[in-house]
Predict the structure.
Amino acid sequence: MAGDRSFRYDLDHVLAKFTAAGYQLSIYRSEEKGSMKRFFHSFNSQEFEGIIVSGGDGSLNEVVNGMLLNDIDLPLGVIPSGTSNDFARFLNMPNHVEGCLDVFLRRNLKKIDVGKANDQFFINVCSGGLFTSVSQDIDLDFKNTLGKMAYYIKGIEQLPNFKPFPLRITTEGETIQEDFYVFLILNSTGAGGFPKLAKKAAIDDGLFEMVAIRACPLHEIPRLFIQILRGEHLNEKNIFYTRGSQFKIECLSEDKSFYESDLDGEKGPNLPLDIQVYSRKLTVFSNL
């Protein structure tokens, strides 16, 4: 039911193509949030050669957590049928089912990094602050009808609450304590439909990129977002940028609404966050 809900009409063709290539597919349909993660508790990985998920970043997050929390070591492929599909885009996956099937059958495998925030894994982004709850709170029908535009509309609704919050950020090399509007820790170059947030990112280098927007006068925000869209923001004075394999994020505010985090578009643990990068932890089907 992800995205425009069209994948169900492609399922027969997917089965036929894999059968013709000598593979047998076992199908599991997610009925509710959390069901894919639970599915892997009783999954017998010895019977299979790979796992494919059709959905967006949130669906991918559920599958990754289900696999890694149950020590399932199989190649993972994604058919990007969700709303934003940021990580699939970074893997250069085609935006149509036929092209994705060709990628899977070529078995071009790549070991990639995975992050863990407290006790939850994430594959693309961990974020907190402004806009953190947009993808979590948005109505499913509204999102599926309008696509990415629904995120932007929901984000605009949050602008009246646009205020900074104090963070203490600790990495391997430094500790800073400042007021921020939002922070993101990224495995790939983009998140939330912004493809150039961390242009230096690589998914197999054992490092994640941290991009955080410092508290600044509101009149500077529109110019800053234009720079972010262009990928010209990393040297901007209002941006804190660093790279590392370990991060600790502590919120120093008494307002508990600032303690929420988001992992790949799904609700994450509350701050403080201890974030660890697991180098080349997961094997994926890639079109890079």
Summary: The two ends are 27 Å apart (CA to CA). The CA atoms of residues 189 and 198 lie 5 Å apart. Confidence is low (pLDDT under 50) at residues 145-156. The longest helix spans residues 7-20.
